[in-house]
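User: Can you help me understand a structure? I only have the sequence.
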Amino acid sequence: MKADVVIAVRGGPQAKTRLARRLDAPQRDALVETMLADMLAALFGCPSVRRIYVTTPTPTLARIAARFGAVVVLEPDAGGLNQAFDRTRARIAAADPRTKVMLLPGDLPRLDPAEVRTLIAAAGPDRLVVAPASADGGTGALVFEAGTPLRLAFGPGSFGKHLAAARTLGLEAKVIHAESLGFDLDRPADLDAFLAVGGGARTAHLLRNWRAAA
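Assistant: Let's start by predicting it. Here is the structure, written out as tokens:
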């Protein structure tokens, strides 16, 4: 059983601003680009993934996605994550509303193809699969049928909101704790933790080079 994966990601001055105490704007841009490359490399190595969409308002990120072979959805503006997911999900649902979709924010460089496969395998009709983030009550991944009118709430506290939205629709919600899907790079402490646990070869190389230069 396969799924379409949608990554929503943006670069520019508003990207990863919570890392501004450690990284300047060009570094944050480079980090976002490198994390996306790590995610795409992992996903293209996963047999459960049928196709990958990258939705972004940032031309540089669009070019990276295209080089990997992803379907690029170039957003007209730097709107919110949830709107970007909704637009691409609607595009997929228009072709076949029963298509499984996995929604991923673009800051999961430790992405493990085995965990992606586990979540996709667990999804089905009338079921939402949720991987919680390791911090701030957020959501690392959602898997469900594209035609499901689920109200998206990615951001702090979204895990509980997604479970509540599933209940409202009468969906079964299956929670799967997946380390690589719960570990995002969003706060300064995450940078050190990421290097300590390993994974995401491109991102790790970039951060180690910055640490050595400092």
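Now, to help you interpret it: The chain has one domain: 3-208. DSSP finds eight helices and seven strands in the chain. Let me know which part you'd like to focus on.
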